[in-house]
Amino acid sequence: MGAVGAVGAVGAVGVGRGLDWVSGGRGILWGMSGRGSVGLSAGTLDSVGRASGKLAAAAVAAMDEQFAWFGRMPADQRASVLLVAQNGVAGFTAWLRDPREALRMTTDTFRGAPRDLSRWISLRQTVEMVRVSLQVFEDMVPDLAADEAERAVLSEAVLRYGREVAFASAMSYASAAEARGAWDARLEALVVDGIVRGDAEESLLSRAAALGWDPAAEATVLVGNPPSDDQPTVVYEVRSRAARASRPVLLGVQGSRLVVVLAGPTTDPVDREALVRMASAFGAGPVVAGPTMTSIAEAHRSSSDALSGLRAVVAWPDAPRPVRSADLLPERALAGDPEAEWQLIDRVARPLEEAGGALQETVEAYLAAGGVLESCARQLFVHPNTVRYRLRKATDVTGHNANDPRDALVLRVALAVGRLSRARGLW
């Protein structure tokens, strides 16, 4: 019912001229309500009813002549358009007999349209069909009148009935759009929930594709507090900022947390700005971004890390907003996240050990000495320049500088986690 139901949303385009006419003082049809068909004989009404097939066929023929795309439609879809046009003429005849039946008849006309017709006809094409149909009716219906007085009545009747069609079908289209929006919202919530729970890749991809998500797009999950308890407000805040960043998003509110899946890269400075913009859509409190995955099929890993970071970020009061889950590895490890422990070993402890050259021993001694270079050198019985050289090399190996307080914490926790894992036989 989408495109066909949309007729009313645009029907006023074809009848705008008539609205001016009806309201311009002629007033013949305004007196019809509640009193039957003033000014039309029974013979004229019967003529209009018998001409329904002819009028509908003429409208379809005009569409075929003016629009190349109409001729390419399958035969069954063209027949469906003819059926809708016939129903419209029948509704017009019933309305002439009793104007109080207008709304019901026009609504029934569009409700009877085949549901799959909207797959073949876009909203813009529907506008064109309405315009042509009304033009055909304006040209042919007045000729069915018995005299000039009835001709004037029929001319204004076509225009006013077009207005009735506009209002009735506008409501039909709005209801269909609202239903589709509600369905999309439920489907989007299912996709986000599936990402959080780590659902099977096939079902996740099919649902995301139904929402128009590019399966090849990179995906990053952000979690935090929603900006409001009002669902429409949350949706507006997130989507407006995503539009400014020119990024597709999926979102879901799960209890007291907001989960947003952002499409596209986030590594370059310009791309990282998209994360900052999206963070402003969240409510007060920390916002954690998981790692950027190559596709939405792997987004559950980003979600898992982001949620782990959200649970542990309270241990870092000065964390930036948003903060990457990888920057919260020490806090996540202290909170008991085994994935964070493994990442600390894999990124810090193991590279230091494999690098050799007493790098691990030097880093441990430097941290134990409170970052005092001379004390570390005396403890290791080496020159201070040797300590400096080893610390620079350790920074190159791990990406963390022992002279930086935050990096020093990462190194300390990583080395401690490595010793514990080795003692348990896990490494």
UniProtKB/TrEMBL annotation:
Domain named CdaR GGDEF-like: residues: 198-312
Gene3D superfamilies membership: PucR C-terminal helix-turn-helix domain (1.10.10.2840)
Domain PucR C-terminal helix-turn-helix: 359-416
Source taxon at top rank: Bacteria
InterPro entries the UniProt entry points to: CdaR-like_regulators, CdaR_GGDEF, PucR_C-HTH_dom, PucR_C-HTH_sf
Pfam family of the protein (one): GGDEF_2
Family: Belongs to the CdaR family.
Name of the protein in its database record: Regulator of polyketide synthase expression
